[in-house]
Amino acid sequence: MKINISMTPQKKILIITYYWPPAGGPGVQRWLKFAKYLPENGWAPVIYTPENPSYPLLDESLMKEVPEGIETVKTPIWEPYQLAEKLNKSNKKFKAGQFDVGKNQSWKSRLSIWVRGNFFIPDARVFWVKPSVAFLEKYLRDNHINVIVTSGPPHSLHLIGLGLKNKMPGLKWIADFRDPWTEISYYKHLKLTRRSDKKHRRMESEVFKNADFTLATSYTDAENFRKNGANAICITNGFDETIPAVDSTAQNRNPKFTLSYIGVLEQLRNPEVLWTALDELIRTNADFAENFVLKFAGRVDDKIMESIKHSSLKNHMVDLGYLSHDRAVEEMRDSTLLLITNFPNDSSRGIIPGKIFEYLATGKQIISFGPRDADVATILNETKAGKHFSYQDTGKITGFILERFEIWKNGTLTENKGSIERFSRKSLTAKLAEILDQIS
Known about the structure:
By secondary structure, the chain is α/β, with parallel strands linked by helices. The protein has helices spanning about 30-35, 80-85, 105-120, 130-140, 155-165, 195-210, 220-225, 250, 270-285, 285-290, 300-310, 325-335, 355-360, 375-385, 395-410, 425-440; strands at about 10-15, 45-50, 70-75, 145-150, 175, 215, 230-235, 255-260, 290-295, 315-320, 335-340, 365-370, 385-390.
């Protein structure tokens, strides 16, 4: 059900975001949900977004979640992705932050990554910065806006905030980092020259120093941002109350023990250790093999899919392709065990994939992969919602899956027992509103 915000509160917040419906994927969810609940907290959102964006994914179903009466301002953007895709079709993946790595890289991929990293700093949406600063400077002077927010990636949007802050020093600005900038795992794969690396880091530092507040989506990221000069606070992503948990009787009606991955899965987050464990279980445990299904709902890297098809998993896999958000939630609720993956390096400890909160809302158990001592592990432990493994925990993985399989077989599945209320979108928006009230 749409929320009507025609009864506009006195205070206004301008949300500068690249991703907005009909964009699909996780990038659109955060500020779409904040915009939904901000009016309940005394703030009227105004959206500034490109008129002609090049989205990697589309989800028309999200249009119905856009609040009725919300003011939306759009200006044209020029992006070089069409040229990049002519050079190499695999460059379509750049828009979603995906890269071929190691021996999988062709010379075209290497060249494209080098061009992307060194010619378009901080990213290929940088050409929208100057025209947006010019347009919004006039817009802000003509309209009473209390606070602006820039949401990245793409991190070029933070340069819009920085440009406006330089022109209007009294402007209140929040820089929202859905992912880190120079600390994101694929940063080291951009083949940056020393000069380009310095430019990235200088820009990032300027954003940290000049934003009134910097928002991080994880505890570790907030701590790292503070160490680099930001006035940073953590507001995680979350789940919407419209996602109902599944009762235990509905769980037990699932005819198969279903492990599902929902979303985009690229090579850098490929849990090969899990595929190996599942392959062995299928070959050595007839009961497990008879009842197991591996399901993908989203975009999976071709090379990952190819490797799975050359294992025992090929006859147990269902690839649904990209689904609308509504359908993706249905698949979460119909699964037995939900999979989440992160980059393996320690610098990724602070990444909390947004889908974990929707996973939590379903009440289903979660199996997670990433670096040790990750923020995801903290959340899973506190909510008693599953188990986090490093990519070296080979033996423990099999034990956990078999434990969950036996519970499923015995019909004794239980919901998560830990509290998850603090991760609801309403609670998180109330926390955001406190910050907005403070700085305005």
